[in-house]
Amino acid sequence: MAIEGNTLSEEQITAILDGKRVIAQPREIQEVRNAIVAYERFEQWRPHAEEELLEAHRILMAGLVDEAGAYRRGGVGVMAGGRIIHMAPPAHRVPTLMRDLLQWLHTTDQHPLISSSVFHYEFEFIHPFADGNGRMGRLWQTLILFRWNPMFSHIPVESLVHEHQAEYYQALQSATSQTDSAPFIEFMLRMILDAVITSTPQVTPQVSELLAAIQGEMSREALQAALGLLDRKSFRERYLKPALAAGLIAMTIPGKPNSRLQKYRLTDHGRRWLQERDKA
Questions:
Q1: Dist CA 30 CA 26 (whole Å)
Q2: Which of 26, 78, 137, 222 could be bridged to 86 by S-S, CB 3.0 to 4.6 A?
Q3: Which of 67, 72, 68, 65 lies closest to 88 in space, CA to CA?
Q4: How far is residue 60's CA from residue 25's CA, in Å, rounded to a whole number?
Q5: Angle of helix 133-148 relative to helix 50-60, nearest 10 degrees?
Q6: By the 8 A CB rule, do 86 and 175 touch?
């Protein structure tokens, strides 16, 4: 939210999460409440689904703009210092451009690190909404990365973008002026790398037990049995989700997290962690 000018502190946002009263501008409080709801639904959305992208915008911008959840109906330009640095495509072209972009995302064989950055740039170029394009572009890149590796739901890529905000907008402008998304892709890859390096996951005793129990590919039921656990919810919250979020294990069917055929395996990161633990 800070990237878009929201001035609420971490303490104020924590208070909103706890249901406490906060004295601040109503719009800023609404932005945070909307974001909380969006991130609660984050893991359910599919990156290529247009209706889910529109739903995400409706949630993020509820009470903030009249066209929440709908593509813009008028022209829009990106301003910097009182001058237009990018005039977005005409409104009548937005639905077709967005469907083409989402279809490309669904079928591309590009690595998610690349495809997510390309999508982010193209999304900002199209500027499909009257407002909220920046936060939606960053949210959707995080979603694409999360679908590839769940650890990206916890890695603060946006925090690093905030710290390099001027460079972020410069990368967007450079890509547009060169008609080549490479400058923006390079910037985002650097932000992602920095975020991964600075986000060293804490491995709890429960996650450590899970890593040691995995042999090849194992189902949830097999893992619970190996650990002697009966409570499915406790296993999911204390063992499975933290290990996935830290990138220590991975799903065998990442595109269908609830599949009955779903199994889990150690990642290279997980194997390295076990090796380091055993050395210690």
A1: 6
A2: 78
A3: 72
A4: 17
A5: 130
A6: no
Nearest residue to 244 (alpha-carbon basis) of 262, 225, 261, 221: 262
First and final C-alpha spacing in the chain: 41
The CB density around residue 26, as the number of other CB atoms within 10 Å, is: 8
**Residue 20: per-residue pLDDT:** 85
Residues 6 or more apart whose Cβ sits within 8 Å of residue 95 = 71
pTM for this entry: 0.70
Tell me which CATH code domain 205-279 carries. 1.10.10.10
Q: What pLDDT does residue 201 have?
A: 59
What is the C-alpha separation between 122 and 181, in angstroms, rounded? Answer: 8
Q: pLDDT tens digits for 112-161?
A: 999 999 999 999 999 999 999 999 999 999 999 999 988 787 776 777 78
What is the residue-wise DSSP string for 17-70? HTT----S-HHHHHHHHHHHHHHHHGGG--TT-HHHHHHHHHHHTTTT-TTTTS
Question: Per-residue pLDDT tens for 179-200?
Answer: 999 999 999 999 998 887 766 5
Size (the chain), residues: 280
For the segment(s) 2-198, the CATH number from 3.40.50.720, 3.40.190.10, 1.10.3290.10, 3.50.50.60 is 1.10.3290.10
Helix (H, G, I), strand (E, B) or coil at 79: strand
Delimit the domains of the chain by residue range. 2-198, 205-279
DSSP letter (8 states) at residue 155 = S
CA atoms within 13 A on the CB side of 130: 14
